[in-house]
Specification:
The structure holds two protein chains of two kinds. Chain A is mainly beta. Chain A has a single domain, classed as Folate-binding superfamily (Folate-binding fold). Helices cover about 10% and strands about 35% of the residues of chain A. Chain A contains one helix and six strands, in the order E-E-E-H-E-E-E. In chain A, strands 3-4-5-6 form a four-stranded antiparallel beta sheet, with no helix packed on it. Chain A has a two-stranded antiparallel sheet with strand order 1-2. Chain B is an alpha/beta fold. In chain B, helix 1 crosses helix 9 and helix 3 packs across helix 9. The radius of gyration of chain B is 21 Å and the shape is globular. The chains are: A mainly beta, B alpha/beta. The interface between A and B is medium-sized, with 27 and 25 residues.
């Protein structure tokens, strides 16, 4: 089980959190201005690196706030927990 | 009393050569799991292409092929899915004879439990849809479930009451490692080079074509390249700047010690996220859902194992005293619609077979056959035509979250 550092509550078990996938995925500011390929990419395609990955977690069984983490997907080493820039998606 | 000395038996003949890779092949397949081997097999058997290398970063069939829970079935909801998975099931029925290898294909039947009224409606809908597509799924009431699988708690007093189940009698289990060995032996006989410890790290390209692959053992030129690398597909396509709608997750499974044969079939429950069968040797084999986070570590979190065991014990009270002997994890590549991607890429002679999530093993021969067709002809087989990458632009998704069972 991962030990996740909530920026507000400190280190807690993974079971208290829910995963939010890749961080910093911005909705196209004007959906009508993008074509089907770009819109499909926004909806369906996320980075999937083996290595460092910026991702979102929510402390759903705690303070219920979102935050961003950089985790290495090969080793699960986590660093740089910061409050989520984009708030709740 | 002295035991008479006996000469130990001769080791069996090697099932495949261990060749050095050549500098060029007509077709290079990346990944020597079940799908890669089946693809090479059907390329050689049906399309007369014998100059093939299957490149494997580790050892043959060391990934998802031998980390799955061995269940074979085709009772998916949608037309596109039933067509593909039932094609695979038909091939499974022929393969032991064709490959001259008994890999213990046991058509013991797979039950898919319904615990709520909505699940009863959904399950019956799936059974009827299957019947319209010629798939042998039937709906069983609680008494029939109790008769078919007496070790299930069907009392109605349990935490997860069994309100009924779908049953596919042609479904069952096979010994997954033997499947890989059987395919490997036939591929080798037809002249396919199976090259282990040969990690593909990238591609060589010329315009919108790939001309070969870069490997830990030097560059290898290729006329066509097929990716069958499952959870490790994205790191490969990333080197080409091709972004695929895949997320790689850990998926765990576990086995008990050897027990007397008590469990006659495979049982799945979407509602409580567990599935359970008993292997021929006697282990109870259990699987559950994927870990939520992306990961390539081939290990998952223990609270998921705890959750799936808690559910299993509610369904099968008599298993409460069994011990977990080992747990393990693989890496599965999941797509947004829980259906695979099989088809061409923006690079004209590069093809992908990926995104099978937790459901790839059952499709092994079907996936291999349609992927071989795609690579050989450059066009998808009718069965995998709906499974191209373009569906994530057109929106023609094949949404199988309901019938993939539990994992995605």
């Amino acid at each position: 089980m991962l030990l996740i550092h909530c920026p507000w509550c400190g280190a807690r078990d993974e079971a208290e959190f829910r995963y939010g996938g890749q961080a910093h995925v911005d909705r196209p500011p004007d959906p009508n201005a993008v074509d089907d390929r770009e819109w499909g990419e926004y909806l369906f395609v996320r980075d999937n690196p083996r290595g460092r990955f910026s991702e979102r977690w929510v402390h759903s069984a705690g303070c219920r706030r979102w935050f961003d983490v950089v985790r290495d997907t090969a080793t699960n080493e986590m660093s740089a927990e910061v409050p989520s820039r984009s708030g709740r998606r | 009393m002295a035991t008479p000395r006996r000469t130990p038996p001769e080791p069996p003949a090697r099932l495949w050569r261990n060749p050095e890779p050549k500098s060029r092949y007509d077709v290079v397949i990346v990944g020597a799991g079940g799908h890669g081997l089946a693809t090479a097999y059907y390329l050689a058997r049906d399309h007369g292409i014998r100059d093939i290398a299957v490149l494997e970063r580790g050892w043959l069939a060391g990934g998802g092929t031998v980390r799955n829970t061995m269940i074979i079935r085709s009772d998916y909801l949608l037309d596109e899915s039933t067509a593909l998975y039932d094609h695979a099931l038909g091939l499974w029925e022929q393969l032991p004879d064709e490959l001259e290898y008994d890999f213990s294909f046991s058509q013991c039947g797979v039950l898919n439990l319904a615990h709520t009224e909505q699940e009863v409606r959904d399950s019956r809908r799936r059974a009827f849809a299957n019947q319209l597509n010629g798939v042998d799924t039937e709906w069983l009431g609680p008494e029939e479930v109790a008769e078919f699988c007496p070790v299930l708690d069907t009392s109605g007093e349990s935490r997860y009451p069994v309100l009924g189940a779908t049953l596919q009698r042609r479904a069952g289990t096979v010994e997954h490692d033997h499947v890989a060995w059987a395919l490997a032996r036939k591929c080798d006989e037809m002249g396919v080079d199976l090259v282990q410890n040969c990690e593909v790290t990238g591609f060589r390209t010329e315009g919108d074509r790939v001309t070969g692959v870069r490997t830990g053992r030097g560059p290898i030129s290729a006329g066509r390249v097929g990716l069958a690398a499952a959870g490790r597909t994205s790191p490969l396509t990333d080197t080409l700047g091709v972004r695929l709608p895949l997320q790689s997750h850990p998926l765990q499974a576990l086995a008990s010690e050897l027990l007397e044969p008590v469990h006659p079939c495979a049982v799945m429950s979407n509602h409580v996220h567990v599935y359970c069968s008993q292997a021929h040797r006697g282990e109870l084999v259990l699987g559950g859902g994927i870990d939520s986070y992306n990961g390539y570590a081939q290990r998952g979190s223990v609270h998921l194992v705890e959750r799936q065991l808690a559910a299993a014990v509610e369904l099968f009270p008599m298993f409460a005293r069994a011990h977990v002997l080992r747990t393990w994890a693989g890496t599965v590549d999941v797509t947004p619609d829980a259906s695979p991607i099989i088809g061409p890429t923006p690079y004209g002679n590069l093809f992908v077979n990926c995104g099978w999530g937790a459901g790839g093993f059952k499709a092994t021969p079907g996936a291999g056959r349609v992927f071989a067709h795609t690579i050989a002809t450059g066009e998808p087989h009718p069965l995998n035509a709906p499974y191209g990458l373009e569906r994530f632009t057109t929106g023609a998704l094949i949404d199988e979250h309901g019938a993939t069972g539990v994992a995605n």
